[in-house]
Amino acid sequence: MSRLLLIVLLACTVASGIGVVYMRHMHRKLFVELTRLQKTRDDLDIEFGRLQLEQATWAESNRVDQIARERLGMKFPETADIVVVRP
User: Fold this and answer.
1) pTM for this predicted structure
2) Which tens digits make up the pLDDT trace of 11-69?
3) Is position 79 within any domain?
4) For residue 1, is pLDDT > 90?
5) Which residue has the higher pLDDT, 76 or 33?
6) For a 10 Å CB count at each end of the chain, is N or C smaller?
7) What is the Cα–Cα distance from 34 to 47, expressed in whole angstroms?
8) pLDDT at residue 67, rounded to an integer
9) Is 85 contained in some domain?
């Protein structure tokens, strides 16, 4: 009976050791994946900041006004050309 108990305890100890090694391996794999995803997130945050800055530059009112005048030939109407419509 004590031999059987010893074999069972030995098997449980070996299984527990294998479980610990496997969990450490999985932890390392997941940590590497987490680090990679965090780097990707940081790169995307930097790119998003650049795109926001670019959007703000392109949408600047002076730039829009300049393009409207140069490319589209638009201008502010003269006072005589303004008509007020009342209901």
Assistant:
1) 0.59
2) 999 999 999 999 999 999 999 999 999 999 999 999 999 999 999 988 888 888 888 88
3) no
4) no
5) 33
6) C
7) 20
8) 87
9) no
Q: How far is CA 15 from CA 22, 24, 26, 82, in A?
A: 10, 14, 16, 89
What is the Cβ-side half-sphere exposure of residue 81, based on CA atoms within 13 angstroms? Answer: 4
Say which DSSP state 72 is in: S
Structure tokens at 43: 């790169």
Residue 40: inside a domain: yes
* Residues 39, 34: Cα–Cα separation, whole Å: 9
Identify the CA nearest to 46 among candidates 35, 54, 56.
54
Distance set, CA 57 to CA 15, 32, 45, 61 (Å): 63, 38, 18, 9
Q: How many CA atoms lie within 13 A of 38 on its CB side?
A: 6
